[in-house]
Write a structure and sequence with these properties.
- The protein contains twelve helices and four strands.
- By secondary structure, it is of the alpha+beta class.
Length: 273
């Protein structure tokens, strides 16, 4: 029996649906602490409730609360003020160091120092991060993922004293929300749900499926203030698509440089030959 066949969804299903519909990226937080023991319990439940390749648990989570240390992380995350404002930063790491140490101590063949192992550990870390996000949101906390983790991976790893075969994959700031932003629009299901095989979109499909998101996204960014509108004008940006690959957003030239640096870092830290 599928969910559609059921007379009514269970209480748990309804609660999960409400939780997913309530997701927001929170960037302003109350000056209110998070109980450390409670947080550890939530993280433990999140790991138990997350899939883990081979049940190897190739992940580590580093908690940062100290204001001085958060200030340094704020610098590494390109000065985003929410890093300082939120009471907590969680850094999720792909970690095969601990497993390799266990193997060595048991006289087993060493492994998990290759590109496949990086993928396995990194994906496990992302799975854990999202389970943690849902768990925290279910208790009323807010959070925001920090994509800047990938661009400052070396510096964050050094600051957090990560050993070889352990690198940060993503971070999130966590706290009690001091704002209630509108829910972000997403692409419609027809744009990304495929039956049996990949359905290549036509030009008309792109226009239809990106149209509303492009309009609303453009309005949202320009509503941030006159400085953003001026930047759009200075960079000749006329659409949301142009904004996303402009010098002030996801600059392909910067991504190419950071990609090369990431590859070098993976090699240095034992995830590439």
């Amino acid at each position: 029996m599928t969910a559609a066949d059921s007379a009514a969804p269970s209480d748990a299903a309804q609660a999960m649906s409400r939780l997913m519909r309530s997701h927001r990226s929170i960037r302003q937080y109350e000056d209110r602490a998070i109980d450390p023991a409670w947080l550890d319990a939530v993280l433990a439940e999140a790991l138990a409730g997350s899939s883990s390749s081979g049940n190897l648990n190739l992940v580590s989570v580093i908690k940062t609360r100290d204001p001085v240390r958060k200030a340094r992380l704020c610098e590494l995350h390109y000065g985003q003020p929410m890093v300082n404002q939120a009471p907590l930063v969680l850094t999720f790491c792909a970690d095969t160091f601990r497993t390799r140490q266990w193997l060595a101590q048991r006289g087993a063949r060493l492994g998990f120092a290759d590109f496949v192992s990086w993928h396995v550990a990194a994906f496990d870390a992302i799975i854990l991060a999202q389970t943690t996000a849902l768990a925290l949101e279910s208790h009323g906390l807010g959070l925001c993922y920090m994509g800047t983790t990938l661009h400052s991976m070396r510096e964050i790893a050094d600051f957090l004293e990560c050993p070889e075969n352990c690198l940060p994959v993503t971070s999130m700031v966590v706290g009690w929300p001091a704002e209630a932003p509108a829910q972000r629009d997403r692409l419609p299901p027809a744009a990304w749900i495929h039956d049996e095989r990949y359905q290549r979109p036509t030009a008309d499909d792109i226009d239809a499926r990106f149209g509303e998101r492009e309009r609303r996204g453009r309005e949202r960014y320009l509503a941030l203030g006159p400085e953003m509108a001026q930047l759009w004008q200075e960079h000749g940006i006329g659409s949301l698509a142009q904004y996303y690959t402009s010098k002030i957003k996801y600059d392909p030239d910067r991504f190419a440089l950071d990609s090369a640096q990431l590859r070098a870092l993976l090699a240095e830290r034992g995830f590439l030959p």
